[in-house]
User: Which sequence fits this backbone?
């Protein structure tokens, strides 16, 4: 299904491709959802095939010759041909050099092509094939599904996948790419406020994940302004919620509540029930931080009721986990475990690995407070193993720190750590170090016991 915000981009792509009969046209298009990509492609074909344009596919395989420009030349392109190029990632990294140094082949042979790219591949082109990246006919087009979802507190609710990164370098690359695309739009398509707003929103999320909250707020304010200008109420509510989360992380809880309340008001006004549940949950998190635990439970309970009513199973697990957090704050550890366990069961059933890992980590914290350090260590190790496996560096950092504290406490009280656990912790430390991309600076968990032997 083509969304209203896609129309302008598809119109611009269509105009550029229409001109390609007289000259080449190179389009770089980023997407994060295959079904939506197909919808966009189908719409382009619907518009251009009646004008005698012909679409030809090139699927890049791992064993294919990496010189894609020459491969296209060998396919004997005609002026009406538009090549659809998929899976360029299979030719990395060698293809980048060929694209850079054979880019003139596109002009010389009047080749028009749409490169359908995932974000990591687009990032590599923008960083490692600069001449080809600058050679594109129009600014990069982005067709991202749910690119303006709310950001929420890591470890307590689901963090948008955009902020997931396997190293600080990758996170910085995400930021650099979006800033480049944003500048492109501001210079060449300033009227496309929807895309510009989404890019500011994404940059806000990325900077927030680096704890650079002032930069995040600056981008969110720009995103909010863009949503207001185009009267995109859902985008406005989403950005307000994001700003509330940032102010929560900054410790300005009253301001956080103010933004979440505005987001909630809009969500209710436009009938966005899922957004309403999210905003209620976010307000519950803030009241938990303020120490008003009764009010926190009240808001989480409302969010939980909505999630169950609309069949949002992941939202249900999220709110159950949040209620576990409140009972943890109240010191009712058995009740906290009860809620964490319910959330864990749902996360496992729906395959939410990150949610499963977070609940395991939360349960580890409960057992730590109960004084069952061996059990706490076991839950934290399971959590860290899952987080490392999915590349959730932000959450892994928290769990790794908790594991360090637990092992140190075990040493302090003279508890023995089995040889098997020592080996597993050493392996996890190595894997976590690789994930963070700084194996030379990660402080290892010291699993040596505090004493040698009573004798």
Assistant:
């Amino acid at each position: 299904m083509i969304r209203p915000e896609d129309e302008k981009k598809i119109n611009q792509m269509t105009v550029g491709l229409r001109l390609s009969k007289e000259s080449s046209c190179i389009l770089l298009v980023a997407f994060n959802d295959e079904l939506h990509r197909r919808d966009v492609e189908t719409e382009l074909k619907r518009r251009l095939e009646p004008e005698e344009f012909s679409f030809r596919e090139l699927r890049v395989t791992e064993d294919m010759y990496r010189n894609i420009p020459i491969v296209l030349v060998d396919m004997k392109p005609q002026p009406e041909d538009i090549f659809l190029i998929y899976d360029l990632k299979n030719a990395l990294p060698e293809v980048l050099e060929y694209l850079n140094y054979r880019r003139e082949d596109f002009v010389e042979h009047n080749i028009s092509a749409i490169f359908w790219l995932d974000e990591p591949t687009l990032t590599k082109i923008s960083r490692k094939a600069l001449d080809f990246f600058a050679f594109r006919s129009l600014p990069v087009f982005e067709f991202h599904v749910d690119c303006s979802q709310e950001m929420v507190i890591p470890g307590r609710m689901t963090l948008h996948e955009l902020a997931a990164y396997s190293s600080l370098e990758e996170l910085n690359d995400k930021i650099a790419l979006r800033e480049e695309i944003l500048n492109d739009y501001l210079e060449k398509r300033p009227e496309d406020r929807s895309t510009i707003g989404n890019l500011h929103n994404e940059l806000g999320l990325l900077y927030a994940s680096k704890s650079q909250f002032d930069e995040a707020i600056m981008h969110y304010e720009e995103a909010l302004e863009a949503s207001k200008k185009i009267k995109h109420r859902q985008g406005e509510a989403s950005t307000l919620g994001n700003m509330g989360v940032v102010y929560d992380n900054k410790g300005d809880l009253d301001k956080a509540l103010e933004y979440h309340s505005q987001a909630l008001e809009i969500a209710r006004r436009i009938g966005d029930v899922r957004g309403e549940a999210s905003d209620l949950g976010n307000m519950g998190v803030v009241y938990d931080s303020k120490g008003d635990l009764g009010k926190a439970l009240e808001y989480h309970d409302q969010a939980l009721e909505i999630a169950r009513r609309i069949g949002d199973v992941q939202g249900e697990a999220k709110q159950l986990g949040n209620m576990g957090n409140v009972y943890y704050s109240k010191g009712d550890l058995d009740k906290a475990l009860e809620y964490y366990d319910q959330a864990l069961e749902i996360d496992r059933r729906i395959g939410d690995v990150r949610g499963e890992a977070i609940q395991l980590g939360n349960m580890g914290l409960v057992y730590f407070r109960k004084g069952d350090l061996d059990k706490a260590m076991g839950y934290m190790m399971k959590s860290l193993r899952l987080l490392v496996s999915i590349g959730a560096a932000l959450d892994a950092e928290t769990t790794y720190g908790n594991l360090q504290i637990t092992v140190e406490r075990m040493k302090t009280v003279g508890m023995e750590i089995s040889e098997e656990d020592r080996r597993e912790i050493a392996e996890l430390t190595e894997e976590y170090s690789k994930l963070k991309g700084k194996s030379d600076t990660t402080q290892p968990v010291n699993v040596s016991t505090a004493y040698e032997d009573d004798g």
Notes: Strands lie at 26-31, 54-59, 81-86, 113-117, 141-143. The domain at 146-310 is CATH 1.25.40.10 (Serine Threonine Protein Phosphatase 5, Tetratricopeptide repeat). The first strand starts at residue 26 and ends at 31.
